[in-house]
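Listing S7. Sequence submitted for prediction.
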Amino acid sequence: MFLQRNISLIKSGGGVYNHYPTAVTLASSYSSHSSQFNPSSQTLYIRSGVAMNSDGTKFFSINEYSANNVYEYDLATAYDLSTAGTTAVDNFDPPNLYAGDISFSPDGTKMYLVTSSNNRIIQYTLSTPFDISTRGSATTYNPGITVYGAKIVNAGSTMFTQYYSSQTSLSITKFTLSTPYDLSGTVTNNGSITLSSSTIGVADVRNYGGDWAEDGTQFIHGTLTGTNDLFTIDFATAYDLNSTKTYNVASTPGRPGALKVVDNGTKMVWGDESTSNFRLFNI
């Protein structure tokens, strides 16, 4: 399993895909970002999903009220959001009003969108890795539960989804995939856990997509309101939702939306609901 997982993290050219491999340790607070940009095409509701490609030269976002658009930006300098320029805008189909989360397979040939208006995960093939203009066929997966965020890890064999049923209740569900990174195969629900905000140590758990360490030991999530706006859930046993859990919280400026941890676990990025800026922070 160790060898298989590490092979899955290596992309062509020897780089590391933007799944963060192992658990990160948050500081108590994050007072300043390393880079940001304000997209003219997305002035409101930028709290929905974000993603980056393998080397930090592309940034992707979706928008809760964006006419179902996926946005792709080239970064002239890797991991520097201030150098972003729009490359492509793709109106995905089937259309849904609420777009919750976005992620990619390690090789960039599959894109996954969570549409929280109807609780579906849509898988698209990309003929050119990380190029949304080459989007092809779609597979729509119905998990049979409410879903606001999703992430596939464990060399493509495990998927976690999450949603909030209220300001104080967060549910996480585990699925296994019969074919790595492919929702068109058999997908099996392995059960859920529900955690209260007081157990985690935050005032509010509402948000769209969070992120998972590739080794299955940590979930990281932002919250749209509250004194502590960012938290991690660390699992004693990898990929086991029922194992012993510990929690860490951190304060952040603004109101962080759906987030991703990138650059081998050294950075995190999200849309700030309070300023309509996408912001990148060093962990």
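Caption to Listing S7: primary sequence and predicted structure tokens for the chain studied. Residues 2-282 form a domain with the Neuraminidase fold (CATH 2.120.10). The longest helix spans residues 2-9.
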